[in-house]
Write a structure and sequence with these properties.
Blueprint (H helix, E strand, L loop, with lengths): L1 E7 L3 H10 L1 H5 L3 E8 L6 H7 L3 E3 L4 H7 L4 E5 L4 E2 L3 H11 L4 E5 L7 H6 L9 E4 H7 L16 E8 L1 H4 L2
Parallel strand pairs: 1-2, 1-4, 2-3, 6-8
Antiparallel strand pairs: 4-7, 5-8
Helix pairs in contact: 1-3
Amino acid sequence: MLTILMETHDSETRLAQSLAALVSGAVEGLISDVIILDHGSRDASQRVADAAGARFLTEWAMTDVVRSARGTWLLLLEPGARPLGRWVEEVAEHMAIGRGPARFSASRRHRRPLLARLASRRPALEQGFLVSRTQAAGMVRSGMTIADFVTRRGVHRLSSELMPAWAASR
């Protein structure tokens, strides 16, 4: 089973887009729960999360969040990011084999312009991050964000693509 983790701040529309894209994973029995970590949103982010059956936390300790996750794996996403294609099957297979952390492939249809790619680093969660809860529990420390879990070493690349969050606002 898989727990989805997202941090949000006034991301109502992007949060709704991500949660809608994850429905297929819930229907297939892959997703056990969704946890939204809020940073003081003043929009309807909480209503969106509640409508989707997600836990919406305004105060949390990351150690408690990881410990309370129902899934044996965590998928860390930015609000607005949407897995594409046959992602449910591929993530389920990756989890069953028990490989280490993984990231989605970059969407071929949603690429930043060349100058933007050269001028700035890619956001840590632009391609999501899939990690076992056991591995996450070993990395967790107080005060960290979900982006702090992302490592660039020894990460498997899934063939399924992820539409990045920045593309959702276009």
